[in-house]
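Entry:
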Amino acid sequence: MTPTHSVTAPLRIDSAELRLVRLPLVTPFTISTGTMVEKVFPLLTLRADGIEGYAEGVMDPLPDYLEETIAGGMAFLRDLILPQVVGKTFENPAAMDRLLAPWRGHQMAKAVVEMAFWDLWAKSLNLPLKTVFGGSGDKVAVGVSLGIGPVEETLDRVAAHLAQGYQRIKLKVRPGHDEVLVAAVRNAFPDCHLTVDANSCYTLADTALMRRLDAFALDYIEQPLAWDDIHDHAVLQQRIQTPICLDECLRTSGDVRKALQSDAARVVNIKVGRSGGYVESLRMHDICAAFSVPVWCGGMLESGIGRAHNIHLSTLPNFTKPGDTSSASRYFTRDLIEEKLETSEGWMPVPTGPGIGVTPDWEFLATITRSTETFRP
């Protein structure tokens, strides 16, 4: 999709600020790979012509989602990318993407820089980020992701979130905590849009279990098999009726094309951080649209900066399934932005104003910042 924008002068990056931020979670969040009690992440500010662009990294402290880590990402940004970016002039985000493209991997670290530049560029145009993308609408449909917990407790949480209007319930599952849980939720809530997310914890030896899950009318099963194996997902999809949704496997638009050509995925989760930035995410969106495969925006427990980015991306036309852009208050007692990103009846309002439309709460941010590094020409 070609971004729609007015003519603007090239932007020279005057300086960059890289913070390491810690936000405690309201409650622990458990998935098949472990439990999180706080969200620790890099937060980047790019400055040019008196304006600022913001983005956050979604890499974890340990390589349990993908291989990237906070320590490795910070070093990659500090030692290689930011010295190349600061002092340079870029005509548009595609120019930034060309600078980042030669470096292999490090998708999440590259995404931080590219996303911050998109925010900066949209602000230089005095346009909301969604408009620059070609998105539309003032709200996006929202689902909720529930971490692993006791079945009775999960039933209570499902009921509470459905009462709040959330349009899709996603259950985190793992071996031994799957079929009984799904059956209980489906029996209690026969009409809700229900999905499960395995975070790569099953193998083809679990095909019989996957077939039994067909009985529960799931919208899709997300990433049941290995994080780097598109082929086995194609094999599994031929053996089950429930659509497979891929997440961890899809790092590039080429991965998406191969997955759709081989029928390894009938739904796609797009995460900007996992994809290396918006340029590649837009390519993924357009490939899926060409295959008539729906997409949705996945979450990584982002603060308000990353959440605002995700909301704007979700305004593109092929984001037809509810995403993970639920209320920030589900995760944080206090967010690090001035605005409140809260859902109403299953819809998240799109932040208004130029760029991502949210402003850091600098006073609070100072209290949760572990380190700060400034880069100048």
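The first strand starts at residue 11 and ends at 12.
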